[in-house]
Amino acid sequence: MASSTAKLLGIDDGEDDDAPTPRKAATKPATVHEFQKALDMLGIKDEPTKVSPGGVPIGENGRPRVTIRKPSLIDTAPEPARKAAGYANQVVEGVPLVAPATDLAASAIDATAKGFGQGDPNPYGATWMDRFTSARNKLTGATKEFAAENPIGSTVANVAGGVASAIPLAMTGPGAIMMGLRGPSLGLRTLGGGAGGATIGGADAALRGDNIGTGALLGGGVGMAGPVAGDLAHKGTSAALNYFLPRQGPLKGIDPINVNRLVQAVEGETPATIAAARDRIGPHGFLGDLNQGMTDLTGAAAVTPGPKAVVREAYQTRMDNQRPRIEAAADAGMGTPRRDMVELEYLTTEAQKAAASPLYNQWTSMRVPPTERLKDLIPRLKNAGAFKRAEKLAAISGEPVNIKFFTGGPQKDFPTAQTWDYVKQGLDSSIEKAYSSGDKTLARKLIGLKNDMIHEIETTDAGKVWNTARKTFADYASLKDNHAAGYDTFLGGRSGLTVDELKHELRGLSVPEIQARVIGARAAISDAMGAALTGDTQMRNKLLAPNNQEKLRLLIGNNKQADEMIKALEQEHLLGVKALDVMGNNATGASNVGRAERKNLLMPNPAPEWGFDIGKPGTYLPPSIRDQFTISGMINARRGERNNVANNQLGHLLTMPNGPQMIDLIRGLSNEEARQAKTFARTRAGGNLLTGAVSGPGASVVRRKNSQSE
User: Fold this and answer.
1) pLDDT for 351-369, tens place per residue?
2) Which of 543, 485, 542, 492 is nearest to 515 (CA)?
3) What are the start-end ranges of the H helices in 459-534?
4) From CA 101, how far away is CA 616, in angstroms rounded?
5) What phi and psi, each to the nearest 5 degrees, are found at residue 481?
6) What is the average pLDDT across 336-349?
7) Phi and psi torsions of 576, nearest 5°
8) What is the per-residue DSSP string for 377-424?
9) Taking Cα atoms as reference points, which of 118, 124, 131, 9 lies closest to residue 66?
10) What single DSSP character describes residue 70?
């Protein structure tokens, strides 16, 4: 036991020596813990006169002196508890700046307290600095000893303490900048991390008594490496997860390259904006028309070998079929297909009176006595030539008319309701002539006169018969005139009418006459679309003019039908814009620059090119085949192959029509966008954690472990 105790005490126990002598300098000295353990084994204590730099009491003769002391709580604690306390201390020790500052403060307090020690000289040291050095050596010595005994565990504990301390620091603005976590670019974050790491490393080294330059240099280097490592980990992990994770539902079978392209194209869209976009492009739109991101992809596919043929054929076919679609929209909106004047005969009096003969008989025989206001209109009607025109129209139609407005005696004779309708037709003819000659002022005056006459007739006893008949009967000549007027509404003399003027004119027309106008306008739409190579586009744009939209609503009467027609025309306009955006103007080539830039969207980024280098034999090969034997060339070849496969698939995806399949695909893309956003956020958190772990406590731990091993 003596021998083992001597070894623990670090002394030579030779048989002939009265007093043991210290071991030779070459022999490893006992640690403070070993020395204290030996004292406990001997059960003795010593009254020290001075303390060695290592904290060992030395007697007056230069030999170690021991004292019997009461074992401390930590010495008598079980080994697991002592280990736990040691690791807890290592966790604290891993906190840069705070740990050494705490040790310094504790040592200063201990040195001050021992300044009141008994004896002369002071058994704990003659000066405050001696006592401070002794106390600090005891603290750091025990910490280093535990770290030496438990190298792996202490390192983990150091890092854990540093990471824990870095979290609150990172939550502050300046702290985040010093750790390389905040900044508009990776370069600025790297500079911030380097500056912060150098500051923390140098200050921590100074407080621990290490080399300040080494601490600052190592801290700055690791501080700059932290943001780079975190960014690489974040982006690399995020890209790998987004690329390799299997996808289900509508995205199953779609190349990961295309999934990422399409997800980026719908980024920022919401269910509401997607629904609105689908409504704008209508049933004939493609996925590529959905928004500008999709259109840019489609434009790139339209100039890229592989998908080019698929995309251009789909868009060209759709453009070629624009006219039939506009015809169908006009049929539905205006309630009639294109008709000619022969078909209008079915709307004449001869065809209609057979179905309503009692009403027709009233129409032709019921007299309309003039009211005072109607009498006042007689001179104006004569000056307008309405009566002469009425007699002519009646004669052509073979119908009797009575232009006797005033008769004397007891037998009064007045015009019938049918006669007054011929007078109205006479005014309609005069109105048409005024428009044809470009005299809009005369036309407006005649329209006002006609409406005044109709209003006065409606106030008479025959007014009900007049109104009912005018909804049912119409003379062929009147229908023909109104057909011509409808034809001119958007193309001829009436195209210059304001919305209010047209509203005023239509107010005096019967239902069959308005139908004739609608049929005339419908015929004009078809004829205009066939009159020029781009007639369908020109007519579409003319009808979409704000004033013409209102005129359509007035003519059609049914706002819902009119709005559906206008909506279909707006969809065609958008599809035309998208087609031009995708395929460009082949006649002028005006979009060549944009198309060239779009082409790069579907091309893989080439690896850096290798130039000629006399020290690299591979660069001796001709440039035409050199790439095939270089690393970058092989990488680009593989990437190009994968890109071509994805591009061919992309063409079919972008020309998918607006329907259930496209809805499912968009829903899948939205879900994938949300998943990628979560992945990005999670990997960003992991990257930030790595950045903080490296640029925060990493440099301090590495520096101290290296200094301890030296």
Assistant:
1) 666 666 777 777 778 888 7
2) 485
3) 463-470, 476-487, 499-506, 511-529
4) 56
5) -65, -45
6) 70
7) -65, -40
8) HHHHHHHTTHHHHHHHHHHHHT----------SS-----BHHHHHHHH
9) 9
10) P
Q: What is the pLDDT of residue 13?
A: 47
How many other β-carbons are positioned within 10 Å of the β-carbon of residue 162? 23
SS3 of 11, please? Answer: strand
What number is the average pLDDT over the span 184-193? 78
Query: Which tokens belong to 677?
Result: 């956003």
Mean pLDDT score, 580-606? 61
Distance CA 673, CA 307 (A): 24
Residue 404 has pLDDT above 60, yes or no: yes
CB atoms within 10 A of CB 48: 19
Here the tokens at position 99 are 């740990």
Residues 6+ apart with CB under 8 A from 46: 57, 59, 64, 65, 66, 67
Token pair recorded at residue 239: 């890209």
Is the pTM here over 0.70, yes or no? no
Amino acid at 299: G
What is the reported pLDDT for 281? 94
Please count the residues of the chain: 710
Q: Which two tokens stand for residue 303?
A: 């100039």
* Mean pLDDT of all residues in 260-265: 89
Measured distance between the N- and C-terminal CA atoms of the chain, rounded to whole angstroms:
33
Q: d(Cα 378, Cα 168) in Å, to the nearest integer? A: 98
Q: What is the pLDDT of residue 2?
A: 45
Q: For residues 456 and 374, is the Cβ–Cβ distance under 8 A?
A: yes
Amino acid at 534: T
Question: What would the DSSP string read from start to end of 79-126?
Answer: HHHHHHHHHHHHHHHTSTTHHHHHHHHHHHHHHHHGGG-SSSS-TT-S
- CA–CA separation, 458 vs 421, rounded Å? 12
Position 225 scores a pLDDT of 76
Query: Ramachandran region of residue 221, left (φ > 0), alpha (ψ -120 to 50) or beta?
Result: alpha
Beta-carbon neighbour count of residue 629 at 10 Å?
11
User: Facing residues of 541 across strands?
Assistant: none
Angle (nearest 5°) at CA 44 between 38 and 49: 95
Residue-wise burial string across 81-99, b where 16 or more C-beta atoms lie within 10 A, e elsewhere: eeeeebbebbbbbbbbbeb
Rounded Cα distance, 315 and 284, in Å? 10
